[in-house]
């Protein structure tokens, strides 16, 4: 009898264990898993509104460059249907940006209308997607002037679905400096100077050292006067974007101080393209670039040095003619 009772006890325990297990499985099967959800779900904003994503990297070049902008649908799930997002350029925001960011120590100017266009002012976030189709700022870097900080504010004006995130609805596209790809045209020219080194053009410090692309040599003239010039005749007319002067290795009073940079197509009649007064080279063998703003091409270029630092001698390590491309 005891054996029977013991066997019945184990049978009951097994029964209830099975029942409990089945109940757990049934409950698990009935429970629905919750979809992922974010408090940002449905908020629409511009990713470029984050400050480090709105800096434009542009070159001073002829071909059109593209800067991307668009909208983003926040959260884990995209919209159930297409969302249309409209944008506008907002130059009126530049002044307030300058006031808010006065601690930077410089002023932003509106990017000129003449140097850019937008591929469209309407973007679409497709159903089930989170990023809109990309839109582009199309920029002609060749038309942008050096020496300025530019700003192009673009903002979301309306969305057909979701919620516009006003804290991230404006992207301030900033251009702090233009990059350049340079071509050195100096080697294609024939050099002459008004006062040669006393030992000749090919001497250790003769005029040939002025354009030899060797920064360990220099040109030195012992007869400086206010009408001193160096001249390059090119094989064909070329438009320049800049020129460079590299100071000598010693005696800063021999450095150029005042000069005219000029162009000509006959070697006689000269057009002044750049005027410099009181220029100082803060280091020895220091290269300084001087940008030009001209669209004309010339066969001759001349550096007319009207004053140096006060010495009877003048020296220059290198003189280069630069073209951007």
UniProtKB/TrEMBL annotation:
SUPFAM superfamilies to which the protein is assigned, alphabetical: Galactose-binding domain-like (SSF49785)
InterPro entries linked: BT_3987-like_N, FA58C, Galactose-bd-like_sf
Alphabetically ordered keywords of this record: Signal
Lineage, opening ranks: Bacteria, Pseudomonadati, Bacteroidota, Chitinophagia, Chitinophagales
Source organism per UniProt: Niabella pedocola
Keyword ATP-binding: no
Record-given protein name: DUF1735 domain-containing protein
Entry-linked Pfam families: BT_3987-like_N (PF08522), F5_F8_type_C (PF00754)
Domain annotation BT-3987-like N-terminal: ranges: 43-161
Signal peptide location: 1-28
Domain F5/8 type C: 202-318
């Amino acid at each position: 009898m005891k054996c029977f009772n013991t066997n019945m006890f184990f049978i009951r325990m097994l029964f209830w264990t099975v029942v409990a297990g089945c109940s757990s499985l049934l409950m698990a099967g009935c429970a629905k898993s919750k979809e992922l959800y974010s408090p940002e779900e449905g908020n629409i904003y511009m990713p470029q509104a984050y400050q480090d994503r709105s800096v434009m990297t542009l070159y001073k070049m002829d071909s059109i460059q593209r800067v991307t902008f668009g909208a983003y649908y926040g959260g884990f799930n995209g919209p159930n249907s297409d969302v249309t997002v409209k944008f506008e350029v907002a130059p009126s925001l530049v002044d307030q940006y300058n006031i808010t960011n006065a601690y930077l120590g410089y002023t932003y100017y509106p990017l000129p209308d003449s140097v850019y266009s937008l591929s469209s002012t309407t973007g679409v976030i497709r159903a089930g997607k989170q990023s809109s189709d990309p839109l582009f700022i199309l920029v002609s870097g060749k038309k942008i002037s050096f020496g300025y900080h530019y700003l192009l504010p673009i903002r979301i004006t309306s969305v057909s679905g979701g919620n516009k995130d006003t804290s991230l609805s404006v992207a301030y596209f900033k251009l702090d400096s233009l990059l350049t790809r340079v071509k050195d045209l100096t080697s294609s020219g024939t050099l002459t100077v008004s006062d040669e080194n006393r030992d000749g053009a090919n001497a250790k410090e003769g005029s040939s050292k002025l354009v030899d692309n060797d920064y360990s040599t220099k040109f030195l003239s012992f007869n400086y006067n206010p009408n001193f010039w160096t001249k390059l005749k090119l094989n064909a007319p070329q438009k320049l974007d800049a020129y460079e002067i590299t100071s000598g290795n010693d005696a800063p009073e021999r450095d150029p101080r005042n000069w005219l940079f000029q162009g000509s197509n006959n070697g006689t009649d000269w057009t002044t393209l750049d005027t410099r007064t009181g220029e100082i080279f803060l280091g020895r063998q220091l290269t300084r670039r001087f940008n030009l703003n001209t669209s004309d091409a010339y066969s001759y270029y001349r550096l007319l040095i009207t004053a140096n630092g006060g010495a009877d001698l003048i020296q220059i390590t290198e003189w280069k003619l630069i073209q951007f491309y």
